[in-house]
Amino acid sequence: MSDIGSEEFEEDEGINLGEYEGERNENEERHGFGKATLPNGDTYEGHYANGKRHGNGTYRFKNGAKYVGEYVKGKKHGQGTFWYPDGSRYEGGWVEDRRNGHGIYTYPNGDMYDGDWYEHQRHGQGIYTYSSTGTKYTGSWVHGKRDGMGELIHSNHRFVGNFADDNLQGSGKYRFDIGCEQHGEFVLEEQIQEGETEEDESLTVLTAKWKCSSLTEIEPAKVG
């Protein structure tokens, strides 16, 4: 669904703006604090400047979604929280109606991402927590995918290394709570995936395989 909201225009353009109750400027534009019910059924309660949503406000979509936060010239811009109809929620920075800057997104299944955003996507540094297992990924993101150096933290071990296009790839190490580290790298190997019928063509699938190069003990931390 779109989270932009319905546009509002000046009355002299001859467009039905719906109902409005609030302050206006000398040009009769919506200006100051007001409440509006838009033609599509959405509602807005908050501040305006020269006919545009501007400042803090609450926008309620007729499908149940809601945005509470800052607007600049009619667009979500600054800090704000958006509740989506599927139960997910985003709290953080916005730039011209898009998630940008630092923000926290809670997904319908309970997963959570806390980190940098760019143009609606996870991009930069961030932590993703998987609710079903408690596993966490902390590290670099590029256009919504794990990419670059990162750390995958499980209940009794962790992996530190390189990710590419959301997959483990390249050198890294596993660190186990029992007191050892396994060094190596993930290498892409080709695997042939046969078709379900004789007419289906076989597909070549790249799968990341872990190649261990060494195993070392973890020295206990010195006290004092």
Explained architecture:
The protein has 224 residues and is mostly beta strands. 0% of the residues lie in helices and 63% in strands. The chain has strands at 19-24, 30-37, 43-49, 52-60, 66-72, 75-83, 89-95, 98-106, 112-118, 121-129, 136-142, 145-153, 157-164, 167-176, 180-193, 203-217. Strand 1 and strand 2 form a beta hairpin. Residues 21-32 have a biased composition (Basic and acidic residues). Keywords: Repeat.
Key traits:
224 residues; mainly beta; 16-stranded antiparallel sheet; elongated; repeat
Beta-strand residue fraction: over 45%
Count of individual beta strands: 16
Largest sheet: 16 strands, antiparallel
Number of helices: 0
Low-confidence parts: 10-14
Calculate Rg over CA atoms.
25 Å
Assembly type: single chain
Q: Would you tell me the structural class of the helices and strands?
A: mainly beta
Q: What is the terminal-to-terminal distance? A: 57 Å
Coarse shape: elongated
Helix-strand pattern: EEEEEEEEEEEEEEEE
- The proportion of residues forming helix, as a percent range, comes to under 10%
Describe the strand arrangement of the main beta sheet, using strand numbers.
Answer: 1-2-3-4-5-6-7-8-9-10-11-12-13-14-15-16
- Average pLDDT works out at 89
